[in-house]
Every structure is written in structure tokens, then in C-alpha cells.
Known about the structure:
Elements: H1 3-7, H2 22-39, H3 45-70, H4 74-86, H5 89-92, E1 108-112, H6 121-124, E2 147-151, H7 154-160, E3 170-176, E4 181-183, H8 188-194, H9 197-201, H10 208-231, H11 247-258, E5 264-268, E6 286-291, H12 302-307, E7 308-310, H13 316-322, H14 324-328, H15 333-337, E8 349-353, E9 356-359, H16 364-374
Parallel strand pairs: 4-5
Antiparallel strand pairs: 1-3, 2-6, 3-7, 5-6, 8-9
Helix pairs in contact: 2-3, 3-4, 3-10
Amino acid sequence: MNTKELFDHPIFDFPSKTKSSFQSHLIASFETYLGLLKLVDDDYSSLIAQDLDKIIEACNLLEEVVDSYLHGKLASAYHIFAKLMENMPDYLIPPNKNLHIDTHDNFLFKARQEFTKDLGIKEMFHIPFEKRHIVKTNRFSLSGLPCIYLSNSVHTCWEELDRPVFSQMAVSRFKTNHFKYLDLSVNYKFLKMYFVPKWKEQEKIISDGVAGAHKLAFVKFINLFPLYIACYTKVRYGDATFKPEYIIPQMLMQWVAETSEFQGVVYNSTKTKAINNDELFNNQFLNYAIPVKTSMNEGFCEYLSKNVYLTSPISWEMLNISEPKFTIEDLDFTKEILGKVMPPPPILHLNLIDTQRQLYWNTAFGKLEQFLFKMSLKNVEGHPIS
């Protein structure tokens, strides 16, 4: 089996789906995955062989975590999970941030479904501690633990909110103080496309840097795939009070909240549909979960208050009213944006309508982002960025 045939296997379809119990699905998926890795016999087999023992150990530890948790041994489950994480940091930090995820802290946004006159920066921050009782459990959310949830584009925010009326959606731009994120993003399309014959024919002309980065991405992917399966399995019973599919991602959030090395988790949006396969290096639609690092009776996390800045929220409707020319003028991305106003965005093009490929900056999402970059940043107490 060559590597292209490996990635054509349905086990790599994300998010993972199952009709059996989560525990059974995890065991079966790991067994299938390890069997497939052992069948690879092309140039990449040596990369697999050098890390195969680590991958097997990761699968075994994840199975032990879930089994201990389901037997009510929560402390034991977390202890095993912490052991797993000790073996993974090299793979969780992107080996080439230009290839995987750019953590330069500029393209971070948060949206709420409706803009109101009483909405300010405090309403765009995390849920205050005096209201932590309303923090619900979710895939990357622990019940009662406030978090700041961000996306790397206004478009991704819109998708995550299930496409509310865009003109009324409230958006703020965020900037963090050089946060480090535990990287669970999967650039699977790039990996798979690399093994398509037309790419293989061009392999000799691909720069050494890109080819080397691709090998690093491959090694990262095969090592983290067991964790991806454990985190990206679709919930079987949506209305259930307990969702076993959340065991591992919630432990990740607990581990991030306790560690000083990472400030948050970054993961793929599974709701975005307008991904253009041609944008191999820029088709990442990402979400960020940043848990509080301190706890108080009321107010906001002291650490996040000092290290997270944001703009006042605006809406497309308000921008049209206050700056009508700004919303209708097209900008020349190369001349006016690239390297001058701001770094290039994570998304360069969108295909929201079939056959209509649009430059992202010329969509309403892009124009709203451009305006947000002109607005001043403040901390949650209203003090400007220093």
C-alpha cells in the first residue's frame, strides 16, 4: 500500500462517525489505523516505522483513559491522560507555522448573534465568574469553567453561529499577548493532495522547504491521529446529558487550564462549508478555546484581563450606516493590504456560491475585518493596549 492509498481509506474522513458505543468505536478505529500503517511500503514507511511504537502507546493510553473514566475512576483517567500528554508536546506545537497554523495573534475574532446598543467589550469577553453557573458542557468546554471562544475569521464565526443574519451579527477583533496554543488542527487536505499523481510529478520542483515541511506535517499527523479520532468523533446522541465523545477533549481543556505552557486549544471548525481545495496552504478554518487561568468570586480572570485585548463590537449594519463608502469600495489586496495594513489573512478566497470564487477581502466578511483592524484595542477594563 502506498501513502495515497492509505489516506484514501474512510477512517480518515473527519469528523469520525459511529453507530456503536464510543469506546468500541475507539478500539476498532485504533486497530484499523495501526493495521493500515503497517501495510505502507513506499518512501514514507521509514517515517512510520520510526514512530510506530509511540503511536501504539498513544492508542493504548487513550483506551485506558476512556475505560478508567467509564468505570468512575476519574482521577486515574486524568493521571493516564497527563502521561499521554507528556509524550506529545513536540507534535502539538506546529513544526512550521506558515504551513499549519499562524499563531501571530492578529486574526482572532468573536461574534454574537445580534448587535444591541448595550453590547460592549465586557459582553464579548468570557462569561464573568458570578455567572459561571450558566457555562454549559461542550466538546472543548468544561461545565462551570469560563472560556473565551474565538475564530480565525469573521466567516468562521458566522458559520459557528449557524449563519445568523449577518448584518445584525456583533463582532470584535481580539489580540492576545503571544499565547501558545495546543494545536489540534488537521491540515488533512494538504496531506492528501500531496500524494495525488500530479503533485508527485512536480515533487522535484517543490522547494526543499515545502517538501521538508510536508514530511514534518506527515509525522505530526500520523502521531496525533489517535488523538484526532478521540477528539473529533461525532456525538451519537445529541440530546444526551453525558456524551462520552467529550471525554478526551474536555480532559485536554483541563490539562490546558492547569499548565503554564499553553494558554488555549486550537481546533478545526467542522461547520465551515466554503473551503476551496485549491488553497492548500490557506484553507484552515480554526477555532480557539482559551480557558481562564485564575478563579474569583466575580469579574474576569486576572491573567486574561492583562493579556487579552479586543475592539468594541460592531455590526455590518452599523458599518454601512457610519462608513457607507468603506463597505462598497473594493481594495487591491496586493497593493493596499499585503505587508502594509496587516498580515495576509488565513483565508484568501471563498466559494459561498457555486462557481463564484471571491477574493475574501471583497466579501462582507473581509471588509468587516478590515474595518476592525482600524479600530483601537483595549483590555476588558477599557485600558488601551500598551
